[in-house]
Write a structure and sequence with these properties.
152 residues; alpha/beta; Protein-Tyrosine Phosphatase, Chain A; 6-stranded mixed β-sheet; 5 helices; 6 strands; globular
Length: 152
């Protein structure tokens, strides 16, 4: 059986990079807390892609409150084009921030900008957890992981 849950993509002595299929609030909460608990001495950058009908539904977003609180750097990504394709009302970063109720939350709507900002971060004693049922609009997790670890 092949699993997409908490798959370790790449690691070195200072950094571990995970891809997780988590996208529901309960799975997101469990994944973030499990990685943070397992690696308490490391910072955690946790990225979630809002990709499903429910996760992109404004009325459902409040279910995500507290899900990223254990992350040192919590990030939410969504694509406005995906929202249009699913015929859902437009979402705004402010709406996402309010729903997650986390002052540290960073919201991205451009996957290239997200990837570039991740590449600019210091990865010393820091883990990355990328969570989605999608692919952050084409981010190659293996290539990203190689680039991040090459610089750390």
């Amino acid at each position: 059986m092949i699993t997409k849950r908490k798959k370790k993509i790449l690691k070195n002595e200072k950094t571990k990079i995970f891809k997780d299929f988590a996208h529901s609030p309960s799975k997101l909460y469990a994944s973030v807390n499990a990685v943070k608990e397992q690696f308490q001495d490391k910072k955690l950058v946790a990225c979630i892609e809002l990709h499903t009908f429910s996760s992109l539904n404004k009325d459902f977003l409040s279910e995500y409150e507290g899900c990223l609180d254990k992350a040192d750097i919590p990030i939410v990504y969504f694509n406005s084009h995906t929202i249009k394709l699913k015929c859902l009302p437009e979402l705004f970063p402010e709406t996402i921030k309010k729903a997650f109720a986390n002052d540290k939350l960073m919201v991205y709507t451009d996957s290239e900008l997200l990837e570039n900002d991740l590449l600019k971060m210091s990865w010393d004693d820091t883990n990355l957890l990328m969570m989605s049922s999608g692919n952050f609009d084409g981010i190659d997790f293996n290539v990203l992981a190689e680039k991040l670890l090459a610089d750390s």
